[in-house]
Design a protein that fits this description.
alpha/beta, 5-stranded parallel β-sheet, 7 strands, about 40% helix, globular
Length: about 290
């Protein structure tokens, strides 16, 4: 996961990151790294991605299985459309205690809302997590814990959920791309460090309307709760956000500019490139 090595620059010289996901101030972002921070441009997606759903079909490209046949009942969730499902299937190690109050806050403002979370594989850790949520004031009768899902079932789970929740302060990356590809609304609270800012980066670079970004990107825990519940309760708002995501998500994929950006930055710092340049310059001077 994205974090400084902590080594002196005599050992590891550079950390390459993405300007769209770092703090706006380079000086402040640099303070998180012992390496020299180099940034890929903020106006491109930082890697070359391909879709994870077969074009024009409800089929996972990862396991080749259909997912359009699943309903909420297949996951043990209430079938009633008046019940909003707020989903966060991030791995439990990302569920920091700060996230507990966000989940409970959503439940307190949507009395018909359910929270769906990834179950811990270790029973002791799961028991601890449940006690944390109880202590934070969550209604445990409206929280469902699901085991890790196969890829096509995970896509189906996104599809049948009302709102997707980004975890905090460690957020999603691959998950965020999949959720956007499914055209679903995902609420995020960008954290201070890179690991909690991927969703912000993607949403900032695929061409979403400003109104859509305002509906998805929170600046405080209180706003995170408010945005999630507004999207859950307001069908018109949620549909407009989802339409914009579906229209814009094509800009997430097949980005050749990402390849060019990596090539440039790696050549700029390559010792071989620098030595070759010096040799070439030396030969040129000799010829003169």
């Amino acid at each position: 996961h994205p974090i400084t090595s902590g080594h002196d620059r005599s050992i590891i010289q550079y950390y390459i990151s993405w300007a769209a996901a770092e703090l706006p101030s380079l000086e402040e972002a640099q303070s998180h790294y012992t390496e020299e921070l180099l940034l890929l441009p903020s106006d491109i997606v930082y890697q070359y991605y391909e879709p994870r759903v077969v074009a024009g079909k409800q089929v996972s490209r990862i396991d080749g299985q259909r997912f359009d046949q699943f309903t909420r009942t297949d996951f043990g969730l209430p079938p009633n459309n008046n019940t909003r499902v707020y989903l966060c299937m991030q791995k439990p190690f990302k569920f920091h205690p700060e996230f507990d109050e966000l989940l409970c806050g959503i439940m307190s403002k949507d009395m018909h809302g359910w929270i769906v979370l990834h179950r811990e594989t270790n029973p002791a850790n799961q028991n601890m997590f449940e006690h944390r949520l109880k202590d934070a004031g969550c209604d445990m009768t409206r929280i469902a814990f699901l085991d890790q899902q196969s890829h096509h079932r995970l896509l189906a789970l996104y599809r049948v959920s009302t709102v997707i929740l980004d975890s905090y302060p460690a957020g999603g990356d691959t998950t965020t791309r999949e959720v956007l590809e499914m055209g679903k609304a995902l609420v995020t609270l960008p954290a201070r460090l890179l690991g909690g800012r991927w969703s912000l980066g993607y949403m900032s670079t695929i061409g979403l309307k400003e109104s859509t970004k305002k509906a998805l990107i929170a600046s405080s825990p209180e706003e995170y709760i408010r945005l999630a519940v507004e999207l859950g309760l307001d069908d018109v708002l949620r549909e407009s956000v989802e339409v914009d995501i579906r229209n814009s998500v094509k800009n997430l994929f097949y980005r050749d500019d990402a390849i060019g950006a990596w090539e440039k930055i790696l050549l700029d710092i390559s010792p071989y490139h620098q030595c070759h340049k010096k040799d070439t310059e030396g030969k040129h001077l000799e010829e003169l």
